[in-house]
Amino acid sequence: NKLEARLVAQVVEDLVNTCEREHRTKTIAVATFYNRQKRLIRKELESRLGQRFKGLQIDVETVDRFQGKEADIVIVSMVRNRSRRLGKNSNPAKFERINVAFSRARDLLVVIGARKTFERFEVAIEPVDGGAPRRTPVYGQIIGDIKELGGLWQAKDILGPKPLRSKRNNP
Question: What predicted TM-score, i.e. pTM, was given to this entire model?
């Protein structure tokens, strides 16, 4: 998801610039559910941050490789968009992976994804005491909490509005 990679890179750049301006040192990690997205994000970060990227030690990993790690700031790229349905066996549909992805930030968690893809999607949760898994809209609950706290933003809030295309430039 190229848009998400751009959003992640913009958020990381903004965080790095703010930390530098305020003379703060924060560890930053980016977690995603898929290797291809990890490579796309890394490429976007290298392009945007240039030589600074190597010196900043920003950890970009899949959720599976991020297990057991923490960072001050964690950005999660959900990868999916509205045109691609989320399957019951996809990586973001597994509660263990959701738990790892969303529980590694010490100070700030930023989740980047297509709200409409996730808000009604039900995730199977295994009861602690056994029994059949129960399906619940985990992401919808998380999105609701974020929205209530005023933390739900759109891509244009981060990247700015799309430039208008003139009819002359767009045949």
Answer: 0.85
